């Protein structure tokens, strides 16, 4: 599939954002978190207009390139011509978060089996692993209201999410945010690992040992020590090198 390059139609800053977002889609596919064409990652374009980039609906995540990403405004109007539509459910969730959370540069949403399985549990995320302590330090829950294509769900989703980093969409999946694409990806890596560990531990059938609540309260500082002040930027260059060794076509 040939998609004309838009490199000459956007600023250097937007082009770099497009390359990073396309890389994020490819990495999500590589780590097995995609759901055919049905989930989304969006990135805010810096500036006063609240424009953001989202995936072209109908492309698999391992097909997405910097030029194929769709640039939209808060009313879902395409700002650069594209032959691809935008999934209405993806737009509702992502536009709600971008509109309410000006600290957020990227929103990442998945429907993985482990994530959906934990989202269906009344107890939600349990404090049973080191990974879970990072998530529990900044987690929120939003009850399922059906496929998210109605604008009237936005204020409830935003109110439930608050200023958290990790959101469990009950009976639906997982959502993370970050100041950067790298931050949102690293947050989802930790979130997904947490859910996989929880489902695996529960499948073992034995009694689970829970982490002391006092340790959970100190997790934010532990994360800062682990990655320094860089957050996702600490691991992003290595992830890009990994992706480039496999297939660098996301940059087109």
Please describe what this structure looks like.
With 252 residues, the protein is α+β, with helices and mostly antiparallel strands. It has a single domain, classed as L-fuculose-1-phosphate Aldolase (3-Layer(aba) Sandwich), CATH 3.40.225.10. It is built from 9 helices and 7 strands. It has a 7-stranded mixed β-sheet, sandwiched between helices. A hairpin with a 7-residue loop joins strand 1 and strand 2. Helix 2 crosses helix 5 and helix 4 packs across helix 6.
Short description:
The protein has helices at residues 12-30, 88-100, 113-119, 130-136, 154-161, 181-203, 213-217, 219-227, 236-246, and strands at residues 40-44, 52-54, 70-72, 106-110, 139-142, 166-169, 173-178. The chain is of the alpha+beta class and 252 residues long. It has one domain (7-251): L-fuculose-1-phosphate Aldolase (3-Layer(aba) Sandwich), CATH 3.40.225.10.
Beta-strand proportion:
5-15%
Radius of gyration: 18 Å
Name the CATH superfamily assignment. Class II aldolase/adducin N-terminal domain
The SS-based structural class is alpha+beta
The top-level CATH class is Alpha Beta
Shape by Cα distribution:
globular
Task: Give the SSE string.
Answer: HEEEHEHHEHEEHHHH
CATH topology: L-fuculose-1-phosphate Aldolase
Ends distance: 12 Å
